[in-house]
Amino acid sequence: MSTVDAFMPSGRGRDPYRLGHGHREAHHLARGHGEGGPARKRVVVAYGFWIFLLSDIVMFSAFFAAHAVLQTATAGGPTGRDLFDPMSVALETACLLVSSFTCGMSAVATGARSQLWTQFFLAVTGVLGVAFLALEAHDFAGMIAIGAGPQRSAFLSSFFALVGCHGLHVTAGLLWLGTMMAQVFVKGFRPNILRRLLCFNLFWHVLDIIWIAIFTMVYLIGEGR
Amino acid sequence: MLGKLTWGAIPWDQPIPLIAGAVVFALFFAVVVWVIVKGHLPYLWHEWITSVDHKRIGVMYVMLGLVMLFRGFIDALMIRSQQALAFHAAGYLPPEHYNQVFSAHGTIMIFFAAMPLVIGLMNFAVPLQLGVRDVAFPTLNSTSFWLTATGALLVNISLVIGEFARTGWLPYPPLSETQYSPGVGVDYYDWALLISGVGTLMTGINFVTTILKIRAPGMSYLRMSMFCWTSLAANLLIVAAFPILTATLAMLTLDRYLGFHFFTNEAGGNMMMFINLIWAWGHPEVYILVLPAFGIFSEVISTFSGKPLFGYRSMVIATMFICIVSFMVWLHHFFTMGSGGDVNAVFGIATSVIAVGTGVKVYNWLFTMYGGRIRYATPMMWSVAFIVTFIIGGMTGVLLAVPPADFMLHNSLFLVAHFHNVIIGGVVFAVMAGITYWFPKAFGFRLHEGWGKAVFWLSVVGFYAVFIPLYGAGLLGMTRRLQHYDFALWRPWVLAAGFGMIFLVGSAVAQVIQLVVSYRQRELLRDELGDPWDGRSLEWATTSPPPAFNFAVLPNVSNEEPYWEMKRGAIEAQQMSAEPDYKPIEMPHNSPTGFITAFFSTITGFALIWHIWWLVGVGLVAAYAVFVWFAWRDIEEYEIPAAEVARLDRERRAPRARWLERNAAGRPA
Amino acid sequence: MLPSRDGAKAGTPCVVFRTFSGRVTLVSFLAAILAGCSGGVLEPKGPVGGANALILLDAVCIMCVIGVPTMIAVLVFAWWYRADNTRARRRPDFVHSGRIELLVWSIPILVIMFLGGVIWIGAHELDPFHPISALASTNPQEKPNPQPNTPPQSKTLEVQVVSLDWKWLFIYPDQGIASVNEIVVPVGTPVHFSITSASVMNMFFVPQLGSMIAAMNGMVTQLHLQADHPGDYYGLSSQYSGDGFSGMHFLMRAVPADEFARWVATTKAEGPTLDRAGYEQLAQQSQDVKPFTYRAIDSNIFHAVTTLEIAPGPGPGPSVAPPQVRPRGAD
What we know:
The complex is a heterotrimer. Helix content of chain A is 72%, strand content 0%.
């Protein structure tokens, strides 16, 4: 007896793991879902960028966690209540929220393939972003001037790091924004440019969401201590 | 002008690093000169350095990993020999040097040996097994590799310019703060890992997207190979855990550079927070290493037993279970920090719960072998050795998960033996199996089997010869990282471990010989068919090595072992399937972006370490410029014409058709 | 199916592997455990160490119940199902079995539940912050060594521990003395340690007596130990703390109560005083410090260290560092 005969799997090739599902045809299923084959490039790029954003949120969570732990470690120095200016924070929040709106408007303009309005709304977004950074820099400078810089206490270290990390992300976003404006101007609404604009939009909105978390946890809750 | 950098940074008065550095530099220089003189530079540049092909990138990762494994092994030799000599004696390595050696050993082995090896194998095999042409973001993939190489380069530069960290592989504060570590060592560590950490994170994003969004038509989740499942789990862990490492090291860097107080003793800093954060990354990290290892063994055991994997669905469940629970156990790394009975108990129980998932996998491998027809090529030998060794390592791990036991054994050589047991027995054995298994696919010829067995035996015997005595020394109370000791009870065990290294040296030598001999005998060892092991998954459907586009036509997958199904169909029909309708294929252009980004990252990192601020500015501006330049390119892809695709695919089909003819009755040779 | 040209004669190496290496593995592992039976963690001299060791051995036995048969099964299957074994029954379809799945999930779960119980109880009972009296009544390993002139329930001895770079400071607040790198305790007396660090993290550990616990600046951890037999016990730091770490061991001497009283008296007779200046001198980095004692202490020192009233110890600096600690690249 040939060992092969004993060895040949008996006609169960279609379900060797006995998972029991039927032999449904895969071709009609959508691409990128389960059995539909590789997804379209736009989907892949957006998906990948979302995963990146999730990882960035994890990084922010580490800074949030540090801030939560160190919120009371003021080492005899000033606390949040002593330092935070609600008006400034409200203005910063307004800048970012409105900039999210204008960013969304630029996406609408892009959808309509309007070079003029896309550039206009991107520019407004940029201006609001710069305004946010200016206000924040002013706040930081003020705190440092009165001796409440990050070297003063662990609480202040965690504050400057968390809010500063967000500010760095906004700065990087503005650099990206400028580059996108140039690219849209030079190359128009090519598929790859559209994918990048989509990613930029996602990035800018997530930065806004992070700011809301900062606003709540650092300023609102911190104010109460 | 040059920050803190002076000629005094070179260790003129320390012969060991000086000579080692000189030798390595001379070797490197010689290789570069040879490459240029022989005219290989254009080939290297176009085919490898700027390649965005996952197969090439995978090979480069594995090469980087093997070189760094060797470097880390030299560190291990120094540690073991110093300890063997230093009973009531000073040994030959003063503390300031020894402390760098063990810190470098751990850092290099985890970040620049194990990670690149595992990521390299994932890079090579996953897109092939998914039946697709490449990963989701090929240029990002190249950048990931080169950034990892940057980190490795920085760590190695620290040997000859400045010093490395003297804190152990995880720089616990306050020791790692500027007050107690004023040198550049911890800065080298921080920047090397911050930079390469970005690379690793990008790999994670790349592979999660690839596995979830880019698979061959018909390949639903439950039709993916087990290696793809474990790669998915590992990359999800990378995405979720590496940002924590980045954040924590950034906090330490802020403390050191700008006087922040995250972890200092004064001003409210909290050293315990560092330990919590770093281990919240650190524990998932070891599962990032070991899950793909499990996947490799699933592939190898199933292939060499000639059977489908037993219990595929429960393997998937166990894998995702381990993936999730690995985030809930980090405190077991510091039971002795005084968290109290409740907290310690909860984490201890969670840690032992993970063993359930691993146990299920072991039993599934066991029952895959049951009823199989096991062929003992080297990869299968590594697999059997792995299972036994990993069970021991796992048991000692669950033992350490019991807080009262840990109170006696924390940071002892018992702990050291445990984690080497699972990392060597798990990850290194898997990498050896995986390299041997996929080598013919990557290079077109097999590795020499005899020398492979020599490497195997020397490694297995060597591992036990070194680490079993260390379990003993740990039970006798010997703690880790001692530069010298004078407690007589420990001596026989330390000596035994030192002598055991001889076997491992032998295995390293045998490994080099195997590579040389295999290359020289490559015609004898040639893999004509593309399927040297009678494989079951899709990578074996391609030529060895596969063409740039992997598959002329993406396969239609209708079950869980697609290639086995294709083979069976061909054998039953006694002919190949009909030639497909060849279409032109678009592939991404090579790009120097990754290499150039890494080049400027190396410069920026070095400048940050030595406080050369103007150079930091230059590096950052250059990085942005590279980004813009890359973003500006118009032509992203090139087309391979249908005729070329057809020609390559016919070359693939011909030997298989000939094989079918020769084995008309379906007899195996 | 396809010919395997991997060059291996299928199955040949396994006989050796199964009989030789497998056994060597198990035997050498057990040997290592048994070797630890003298002078180490498995030869405890006090109730805390005893309880820890008991749990350790229990846990090993629990796990070996599954682990050893599994390892044996692996080696047996690996050998039996090799390709050239004509007697083996091949079952290429055997890829799923509900019964086996039930078994391989439920047995580890049951074992882990049992182990979980051990963990829960052990982690609470043996928490270093808990006093020993909770243990003494239940610990079968305790062999009290009653001295004729000591009361049966000894008063707890208080010791304050400060880990410095790179030596240990032991302060006896009730006796008003202190010692460096050596600690003397009466046999059979529970000792309550309050532990902190002057600088970097260390870990106080006496292997034969029991648990270790971290020493951290700005915080106080606690440990309870008791030596039931007279003797000299090796103590060390089990958290790497820098260049002088290897020299950071100490001796814990358990002596009869009257000898302890004599030691206290002798210590009070001569030696330096541990005042602020003396402490700050001690806190400078130094290695391989020979044991010595202080005849009197400023009773506030420990508290001042833990509240950072006394600043944390200095790191390496050009003025005080011996050549071994010269860092590269420092400003």
